[in-house]
Structure formats: C-alpha cells, structure tokens
Amino acid sequence: MLQHPLDILRVLPHDIRDGGGLAERHAERHQSVVHTDSPSRVPGSSSAATLLDHHHSLADIQQATGIPTLFDTLVVYESYPMDQSGLTEANAQAGITCTGIRPYAGSTHYPLAVIAVATGRLQLSLEYRQDVFARDTVESMGDRLLRILREVLADPGQRIAAVDPLGPEDRARIAAFNDTATEVPDETVHRLIERQAAATPGAIAVRHGDVLWTYRELNERADRMAVELRRRGAGPETLVGLALPRSADLVAAALGILKSGAAYLPIDPKYSSDRLVFMLSDARPVLLLTDRATGPALPATDVPRLHLEDLGLDTDAPTGVPTADSGPENLAYVMYTSGSTGTPKGAALTHANIVNPITRLAGILGSGPGSRMLGTASINFDISVFEYFLTLTTGGCVELVRDVLVLGEGGDHEGGDWEGRVVHTVPSALGEVLDRRTAGPRLDTVVLAGETFPPELLRKIRSMMPGTRVINGYGQTEDFYAMTFTIPDAWDGEGGIPLGEPLGNMRVYVLDGALNPVPPGAPRTGARPDRPPARQHARLRPRPRARSRPAGCDVDLPGRRMYRRGDLARWNADGQLEYLGRVDSQLKVRASGSSPPRSKRS
To answer: Which of 41, 314, 395, 586 could in theory staple to 369 by disulfide, Cβ–Cβ 3.0 to 4.6 A?
Structure first.
C-alpha cells in the first residue's frame, strides 16, 4: 500500500528513477514521441506493436498470481481538457449555475487514491477509505507529497533517489525513537560471570538432570579448561570449535573458551558433513573441543581435536589461572547462518555486542540472584546466548533440558513439570507445547522471538497461562538482540504484535530503496547501525564475499556502517517497529532461516 509519497514518483519508468533527472528524461521522451510514429516509446523498440505480444489482462495476471487483490492504491492523472469558460457561458445563458465541477469526483473503493487534474494549475487530491486511514494520516501524506514536489520543482535535474522524503517533524520523531544512548559495562562476558561467582559462590549456577554446579564449581571448571586451551594455542582472535551434547559441561566449555581469550564456534554434529566441512575450513579454528561420544559423528578435517575426557577436569588440584585475556572488542563467538545467497556465513560478535544487550535485557526482565532460566536452545542459535550469559551474569540458574517441547510432556519427563522465571523460545514451539497440555506451564515470563508472533497464540497464552508476562523480541544473528516489546495485559494482538523499541545503545532505521530513512508509517526494509561495532560476517582469510549486506553509511554517524535486514517493517505512531514480512523468499522453520538457493541445492 502506498504510504510513502515518493512511491508516487517511483511509478515512473526505471531509467527515470535510477539515472538522471526528471527534466532530462522528460526532454528525451518528448523528443522521441515527436520524431517517431510510435504512440509511446519503449527503449529498444520502434513500434508500440512490440508490446502486443506481451499483453495480458489484469484478470489473467490476478489468476496467475493467485492473490486476492492486485492493487490497493490508485494513482490517476486526468489530462483531458475541460472548457470551463464555455460551460460558464452556456450555464449563464440557460439561467442556471453549476458549482464544484471537476473531472474526477466521488469516493474511491481503493484504500487510497491520488488524483492529479491538469487544469490551469495542477490540482492534487487524496481520496481515501475512512475504514482504512485516519484523516490525520492522509493529511500527513499530503504534506509530505507537496514538500517532495516542491523539492523536485526547485531542482528538476536531481535524481528521484536523492529526494529527501523527511520533513523536520519526521526527523525529530525518528531521532526520538532512536534516542537510546546509555551506559554499558566496559567488560567481557566472562569477567562479568567471574564477578558474579565471587559475589555468590555457593549459589546454583547450572543444573542438568542430577548434576548441580555452584558458581564456584562452574568457574573453577571453566578455568581448568581455559588453561588447557591456552596451552594448545587458543587466545584472543582465535576460534575454538565446540561440539558437545547439551550438558553442564557445554556451558562450562563455552565459558572456558572465553576465559582462554578465544571465541567459540558452535558445531552441531546433526548438520550435514558438507556443511560442517565448509564451516571448519572457512572459520579455521585452532582446536575442536568435543568428547569421545560425539567425535565419531564429526567429519574428518585437519583441525586438531581435543577430547573433554583428556583434560582432567574432575581433579581437586589447584585451579590454574589463564595467562591471557581478551577485551570487549575481541571476538566472543562466530555463529553460522544459512546465508541469503545459500552459502553459510559466519556472524562474528564481540564481547561488547553481547554485554550491551544482556545488560539491557536483564533490566527488562528483572533478572537477579535466584531467578531460574530454562535452557532449551541449541548452542548453534543465539537464544542460547540469552539463556546462558544473561542468567550467569546476574546470579540466576540455567536449567538445561532436551528442548522446550519437554514442557508439553508432563511430569514424567525431564522438565515436564518445570516452573521458573523465564522461558525463551520461538512462537511455533510454544504453540506446540500448549497444544499438548490442558493447562499451561507456570512461568513468570515467556520471551518469543525468531518468527512471526501470531495474535491467536497470544490469546491462547492469555487463556492457558494467566498472569504470565509476554515479551516479543527481535534481532538478527549479526547483532544478537535489537529490540523488545512487552505486551500489555489488555492487548489482544489485534492488528499484529509490534517488534517494539530499540534496546539501549541500539538504533534501527526503516529505509527506502535508495537507503534513505522513510517517514513513520511507511513500510520498507530495516537497517541497524553498528553500535557497538560488530564484525558481521567473519572470514579469517580475506574473500570478496566475506562482507555482509551493507546498507550504506550510518544515517546519523557518517563513516559507520549499517547492517541491512531482509525484513519489511514500519514505525507506528507510538515509536514501535511493526513487522510486515520478508522482502525475499526466505523460509523459516523454528527460527532457522533457509534461502531458496540453499533449498534447491539440498
């Protein structure tokens, strides 16, 4: 639907939009009409008859696409002449007076129609359906359209892409949406956990089945791992592959890798051998930390393996202290995504990229000592970063289970009768849990992210889990977490559930095709500036395709990059981002994205 005034100008032919100015292209086209017999000029064609072989009726197009509505916006240019003076004279002679005559009159059945009438002066009007748009919304569109037209008239030679669609009020509103600057600890993830271990050494940090480790025990075990990893070449800006089953040792290993100064590279033995070989050859970790049960499932590569059983972690010998440390700008992990081109890409995040979101999220959740977090996510997904590090930096307990579906299996299964503070999962998984139960699990807070949050799921949560706080989260692997929306108790989800507002120190923009910010309400793709700076897609060897999809220069801080999303979104009047779908054909199953090229290859 047309909600961005520049869309009116972007219905012009492609070469007008992307090259040269309006005046230049208009002159070329006028000249071509004068010197040819063609009623309209098609580049590379001398006759309008060329178009006849490609003619299809709108009914045929609609039937072929299978969509119920082809158009929801109408742009009309009425150029036929009206003899106003003749009409006035005739009316006077007849002794009658007619007023309000115009070439186009009447209410449109389209949600929005833009009517341009060529009289002595160009007249513009906006017709709209009151059940779709509020009057003030349409008035804002009209104001923006007039401002854009005045800018074009002032400089007819400029490119359409260079036209600024924002007025001072729009810029002020967008700046207010992104006024998120706040203090953040200048620390690494593992130092924050060490600080918590010193404050509450006897508190339970990790639980898996019958295994319970205190903060002291977890910290000492991770220290032993770090010392051994350092001896084998791990250190700042190196990667250590991590392929372990879900267990308390998995949490200790991730922490131990960070303590060694290195970053961890999650490896899922269930991935195809080709994908694992690609990841290991692409990322080039110095070590692969696994155990003897998991090792046989991994493909043979030249990456040295280190088995957990060979580290002597259960000894009571004094704990060594890692001799090297990393800083906030060093890598913490590299997590491979499906890749928009079908080739997996490693998103490289620093400690600063993690500490900022978990600090902000901890404040939103009210996390602290004694809180319980259900650990359901694979370490190959960044929900695990939320579960492990947010909890362990605030004194809570991570309770590991097979996956979130155990909540739907009742008390006879591990975790089936779990009660705690926070569960973070994807909407489809929680929906399946509730489908399996007659009453919902007793939780303080459920955080949902990774997929579209359907309103019917919210209504089911309200019915089966009364009193549970519901948070809709949003982010991408490239920055871990960007925004949240705590859903008010009275909200029924009608009209869609917003993604929310940016977290502290995060900024989000909605950009048009020319990478310009668009006014609130206009649907476009999103972009998030690198603040704090992220590595995006990592290659330890330089390659042209190592780069992320840049959205250009930071809107507010020239010289800084922005990361461009493939999501379609818009700002609403309350400064919350609303998700409208994808601009590509990426598919998601349980928050795992798959691009068409990869699907075809599979």
So the answer is: 395
